[in-house]
Amino acid sequence: MISQEKSLAAYQQLRALIKDKILANEYIDKIPSELELARQHNLNIKTVNKAVASLISEGLLFRVKGTGTFIRKNDLSKSFIATPKNIGVAIYQLRFMNNPFYSHVFGGIGEVIELCGYNLQIITTNKTRKNLNGKSLFYLDVVERGDVNGLIVSGDEVQKEDILKLHKNKFPFVLFGTKMPGKRFNCVDIDNFSGAYKAAAYLISLNHKRIAFMKGFDLKLDNERLAGYKAALQENNIRIDPDYITIGDFDTEKAYKATKKLLSLPARPTALITSDDVMAVAAIQAAQDSGLRVPDDISIIGFNDMQLASALNPPLTTMKIDIHGMGKAAMTLLIEKLKNPDMAPREIIFQPELLVRASTQQFWE
Question: What CATH number should be reported for the domain whose range is 10-78?
Answer without folding.
Answer: 1.10.10.10
